Amino acid sequence: MRPSPLKVALSYRDVEEMMMERGLTIDHTTINCWVQRYAPERNKRCRPHLKLSNDSWRIDETYVKIKGRWMYLYLAVDSVGNI
């Protein structure tokens, strides 16, 4: 079974290597600059759309086949029933 991409921590050097595999030459310091520049804006835009939840969560995970490809399916529910 493959590890879920949500469970793998990536460093900027890992992202740099992934970009090189795809034919893009980007230095890890450039990626860091992009994160510093665009993360606050992304946070500002996303924050109003996030639902309020509490700190108590139950998570269910399963592995399903969709169009012949195995994928993870997650469901997280907080203590008041918000999905």
Automatic annotation (TrEMBL):
InterPro entries: DDE_dom (IPR032874), IS_Transposase (IPR052183). Residues 55-83 form the DDE domain. Signal peptide: none annotated. It comes from the Bacteria. Pfam families: DDE_Tnp_IS240. This is DDE domain-containing protein. It comes from Ktedonospora formicarum.
